[in-house]
Amino acid sequence: MFHFSNIVRTKGDPKIVEGGPSLKRPEDQLARALGWFSIGLGVVEFFAPRRVTETLGMEGHETLVRTFGVREILAGIMTLSVEKNAGLWARVGGDGLDAAALLSGLTADNPKKGNIALALLMVGGIAMLDYRAAQDTKPQRPPRDARRKLYPNRSGYPKGIESARTAAKQIAANATAGRT
Amino acid sequence: MKALVWHGKEDIRCDTVTDPEIQDPRDAIIKVTSCAICGSDLHLFHNYIPGMLPGDIMGHETMGEVVEVGSGVDRKLKKGDRVVVPFTIICGECDQCKRGNFSVCETTNRKRHLADKAFGHTTAGLFGYTHLTGGYPGGQAEYLRVPFADATHIKVPDGIPDEKLLFLSDIFPTGWQAAAQCDIEPTDTVAIWGCGPVGQMAIRSAILLGANQVIAIDCLPERLSMAEAGGATTINFENESVLERLEELTDGRGPEKCIDCVGMESHVMASLPDTLLDRAKQMVMVESDRPHVLREMIYVCRPGGIISVPGVYSGFSDMLPMGAFMNKGLQMRTGQTHVNRWTDDLLRRIEEGEIDPSFVITHTVPLSQGPEMYQVFRDKRDSCVKVVLKP
Ligand SMILES: [Zn+2]
Ligand SMILES: [Zn+2]
User: How far does residue A175's CA lie from ligand 1's centre (Å)?
Assistant: First the structure.
């Protein structure tokens, strides 16, 4: 079986013969996809805000779109990081902001209100994915009040801590005596 | 053979890989009998330290039996010998090795051009720890090739269980060096941030080196209970102010010696704004490390004191209070551990029953369960402190 990672192995080092199972779950893959999507969308919003506002008939709101772009990029980076759960919740919140901004443009006199409706539908769909991924990737750290095993008997000194302390004092005393 | 292989962020798998072979006359092959997951492996698990490549074998705390030696190993090691493998690969001949500065051996990093660029000068090769330090396959595996094996080993006697000896590979000498480089005086208070495995070893080392008072700081009850068992007074930083408690316990003078057993992934807490800022900067890659503990240590340390840093840092830290550091006349002592500088003494202390490092083990599982244990250890589930893997 071919393993891409074997290409960079130093000659003679162990190479993968058969890959073992990965502990990555489908929700981790979903989070990853959403993270990259977030960055992609953010880049478009940041560098081409005019395209976005024109499509939505909301010209004049380029600065807002740019800000949203930065938000998308940051949320995306967070979603791809170890704190993916926080990133996903940030995205859920962002989806709310997106929807609110779109609704404000959904006026009777906007000739592009069809596009806005479409965009709202999309935001709704993505929001559902964000929410599901956020739910499923909850950190598995035990809660603060969880019952924990305690280790009051693991001193590590087979002869007891007092003996350890005394021995150390003895050595210190000898050292001082030697110095003076 | 089976080995724990890094495939990316939070993705370690138990793969089948080809067995290691003798590549150089000074090599030896070890059949691994026990290995462990180290806190610093979690930095790699999180992909915070650059230089890992998919396919790298993890692990730098390993012991076992010599099954094959190269022609250049001489009589220093032979088939059947029982050895603990130090995580720093050493040649034993270069100027630094001769000075006992084993972790900065000038010979063993086979990718030294990377380290020369990143750090200015190369440091020793390390097992299972990024290509900056040689990209050597690690010891969370059934077999391990040990380069420069004539020098890179700690011979251990039969009749003592693996569990008591395994930590000579890293965390015991690491905790010991952290305390030893504090030059502890009999009147000293030693404050130790972080009660993970290295913190636990540092606590016992400080006691054995004669500290008057040892104070341990963490937020996990199970780790604090273990610290207390080892003779430390504890501070739970989620419930009480570290600064206030340290002042109280030292009559307002501050601890003479401070040890950072946390490193670059300092706990992020809303009540400590600098930790939030560090985490944000780390995420967008304008800062690689989160040095909250360093800042706190510099602030509380008694003037003229020593700050000892065994915790791992990888790159750049922001907003270190150099003003306080300089004006208080502090010294910082740090470094990867010069394992073999300490191990003769530490082995003797284990043999004489002065200390038994196995107290720290909370989980022992087969190697194949390693990937799950990375998560358990990271999330501190099931009161996990130290995981030993059995191939
Ligand atoms: Zn380690
Ligand atoms: Zn050397």
Answer: 32
Q: B124, B115, B6, B9: which is closest to B57 by C-alpha?
A: B6
Q: Which of B226, B368, B372, B384 to mutate to test the interface with A (most CBs of A within 10 A)?
A: B226
What pLDDT, on the 0 to 100 scale, is given for residue B105?
A: 98
Q: B165 and B208, same structural domain? A: no
Q: State the CATH number of the domain containing residue B83.
A: 3.90.180.10
Q: What is the pLDDT of residues B211-238, one digit of tens each?
A: 999 999 999 999 999 999 999 999 999 9
Radius of gyration of chain A (CA): 29
B277: its two tokens? 């800022």
Q: Could you tell me the pLDDT band of residue A167, with boundaries at 50, 70 and 90?
A: confident
Name the strand (E) or helix (H) holding B189: strand B189-193
Q: Do B366 and B230 share a structural domain?
A: no
Tell me the per-residue pLDDT of A23-78, one tens digit each, with 9 for 90 and over. Answer: 999 999 999 999 999 999 999 999 999 999 999 999 999 999 999 999 999 999 99
How many angstroms separate the CA of residue B355 from the nearest CA in chain A?
Answer: 5
Residue A101: domain span: 24-136
pTM for the complete prediction?
0.94
Dihedral, CA of residue B266, residue B269, residue B274 and residue B276, to nearest 10: 90
